[in-house]
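Thread: Modeling a multi-component assembly for a lab meeting

Hi all, long-time lurker, first post. My supervisor asked me to bring a structural picture of a complex we are working on to next week's group meeting, and I have zero experience with this. I have the sequence lines for every component (474 residues in total). Could someone generate the structure of the whole assembly? Inputs are pasted exactly as I received them:
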Amino acid sequence: MLAKRIIPCLDVAEGRVVKGVQFLGLRDAGDPVEVARRYDAEGADELTFLDISASHEGRETMLHVVERVADQVFIPLTVGGGIRTLDDVRRMLNAGADKVSINTAAVSNPDFVRAASDKVGSQCIVVAIDAKRVSAPGEPLRWEIFTHGGRKPTGLDAIEWAQKMVAYGAGELLVTSMDRDGTRIGFDLELMRTIGESVEVPTIASGGVGNLDHLNDGILKGKADAVLAASIFHFGEFTVHQAKEHMALAGIEVRL
Amino acid sequence: MSTAKISNVVVVDYGMGNLRSVAKALEHVAPEGVSVRVSGCPNELAAADRIVFPGQGAARDCMAELRQRGLHDALLDAARSKPFLGICMGMQVLMTHSEENDGTPCLDMFPGEVRFFGHDLHDATGERLKIPHMGWNRVQQTRPHPIWEGIEDGERFYFVHSYHVMPTESNLTLATTEYGLSFVSAIARANVAAVQFHPEKSAEAGLRLLANFLHWMP
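Re: Modeling a multi-component assembly
Sure thing. I ran the full set together rather than chain by chain. Output:
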């Protein structure tokens, strides 16, 4: 049986892994290659790098980070953040990424997703869906796509958008609840399940993981094919291996 | 001490996807004296001691690129004469025909079809299965082979594909994998082995398989 995947996510700025610390802002959390090797050794099924560099130089540095990681870590790598042109896609894949994650550029220009998947194949194209609940309590559930870290509404219905992105060639969807991101109270399971059941491609649940039960919920209740988490792994609370053992105990098929 | 012969591994470049990972993984496990190069030149394929034939994307584009770059015959020659490893699309196009892109004639090195998994795929418990088949799945070895050396039967490898091969001759099959149906995930005959999964992305087990291929003396 196909295993459900655990994907640690690393935020990278100016070539270093960073992590947000409450009230303190971003803290340096090490060399991306070292962190990637550690997650690989712990049994991570894939890795996702999110480039949050503010500068052009930072994004150039990201290419070298991807090269260095891909030379030493032999599991699938996804890179997101600032992927806006076919040239960005090609350069990241040539540097050793297996997939790129497209977010804002998909919203501002959906045809970019189509062009990118035509060019490199849909297996290389992940579309990141950042959604917020917009239905009032008691109303049927509805989510809307937001950009700019959840600050900017787009008017797009999240479910319709997800289906459109798959029709345009997304090979996988990374679904993040902007209501839950950073809260550590668990995924928005209704969002995950609704999107997961409305598309044919695999979905990755993201946003809100605070403990290992949340990962299990994402798979069992959210029907996700993979779960992505950052902080529970970065701060050394849990290893990826512990997370997988916890999933296995709940009857979830994992690669141990 | 005698001078070790430099063995030359060529990863076939025909513009279909990123070959860096395959080359880096081979370099990572290559014994001393083995050189790994990425090349799309028919002469270099002819001069190589071993061939790795990766690939991703669509079958039609794949076949078109092979013809356009004059690699079609060089590849068939290589597959007749030296250790040869096909990976993913590099396995599928070894068959006669693929149903991808409304039907694509392939290299016909082995008789058989390449089929789509189907839009209505379910596992034994009735759970709906996603397409593409993406992630780590078990590879059940159906017979012994040098590329399995040190790899447990049922070991997990990383897959990403929507089509699978159906060889006409069942003795070609080297492994099967379950995904709604039991499909052929590895084949081998004489000096050719081919796998549907990505050994270059399958951590320790994948590296072991690549190392085994480099040591294989068919």
